[in-house]
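Milestone M4 deliverable, item 7.
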Amino acid sequence: MKNLFTSLIFMLFFAGTALSQLVVTELSYNPPETNTDSLEYIELYNLGSAALNLKDYKFTKGIEFAFPEVTINAGGYLLLSVNEGAFMRNYNKPSLQWTSGALNNGGEALAIADASGAEIYAVDFKDVAPWPTVADGTDGEGKSIEICNPEADPNEGDNWKVSLSNLGFMINGKQVFGTPGLANSIPSCSVEPDFIVEVASNFFTPKDITIDVGQTVRWVNTGGTHNINGSQATFPANPESFSNGAPSGDAWTYDFTFNTAGFYNYQCDPHASLGMMGTVTVNGPVIVDIYPVRTITSVSTTNADGQTDSLNVTCTLQGIVYGVNINAATGLQFTVMDANNNGIGAFSGSGNLGYTVQEGDEVEIKGRIDNFRGLTQMRLDSVRLISEGNNLVSPKVVTEFVEEDESSLLTVENLDYVDISQWTGMGSGFNLIMTNGTNEFTIRIDNDVDLYSNGPVVLSPGSKLSVTGLLGQFAPQTAAPYSGGYQLLPRYIVDFLIVTNVNDSDLDSNMTLSPNPANNIVTIKTDAQPESIILYNAQGQQLSVIQNTLEVDMSAFAAGVYFIKAVKADKSSTVRIIKM
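Output delivered:
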């Protein structure tokens, strides 16, 4: 009687909600697009026997939309989309564009109220089991989700499946499935077993099976008086109990869905002594990592058109941060590099993701590989700080800018201005054209670096500049093929080094400082023997000159970034140090 009463209450509730005349029968909440989703859609269905005028109906949860004068015939469909133009171009079907909002990729509640304001439909969809997941092909993998029957409870995840209808086109390499405006492709709501075990003649066939978490086993009795007993009372080590009760000679079936991984024993009670026993091994869920670990070099190669080979690949990268944040106004933009001077840009246009850029940090970044005007970069989803104060690579000395050095730390020597008036100190940054007498180089001074407001570095007669920075690219073309547009982006004032001898070169490219970061004494490790040690602050101001020692006392200086330069004759090496 209790079960009957509960069922009646459920039926009354369900009839007033999920079985309204207007129901949602299909959702595409995370199409396989890059960045902004323009192909999200909702399919509505008229479950009733009469036409339904939706004037003044509206969504009260999820998206924002009030229906105009529009009618759905009995058994008819109506499509809503986030972008009706994009939807028509891709699906070749008309739709009503909702006013604002987007379908949450992690799931959310949707609700519709009628013209009187009464809520007549509600569904709280999810992207985790028992709802279809990315492993099933939805949530960015190309498949919409469809309800198995318009009359089924929409809030039961098992009633939703990924679409089986191939629409014949791809987006970002993902095949698109769906039935917008048509009957759903899911045949029924019945749950078919993943494995069938025959029960007969005092044997289970097969006796031992291996399945995955979430799969269903059906035992079918074809002869004899038997039962299935996998209870923890009989087998205490079983991860969970399953049993169909007392033995029966009827032609019964018993289904059980295994939701806990592990090893299970079970038996037929009347015939256990005769060996009528079986086992079920349930493997754990397969975890799909949408951010697999990759190396910087594996995702930063380009093809003959300058287009990134790994375009739209999502992954995890790890490396050392170089430079300052040159997108501090709206988000993040810096370079992450490996130990071999191979780098990649890191960009976020919507906030700093909880990270403050500091050169020398080791970070783990997750996101999608992108190409902006020829520059390979990762559009960031997250940044995780691993460690601070790591040593940096020595810059590579070059005489030209080439694709293979993009996002690497480079030095160009013996430079002079083509036109010093280009140092404007205006706008979001400015470009300088400099020359070594043979080639011209574009030097980009971003407004987030200290050089921007410092004023031009003036050269005395006979002197030249050695300029260090990160090689970027801003190609003239807005689409592939990309070519040219290489720019060297200095990070600090000290990246502009005046040299009085054009033959100046590294004293020791392997020079290191220990410890780094430091509180007090810093020891210089070098194969060469410098004549003097010069300490600079981050603004390039000379603080002290030390001779006849390889130690620098930092105890009197404030915390921050400094540079230690070892000099001998016309050669020098400079290493960055962090004072704690």
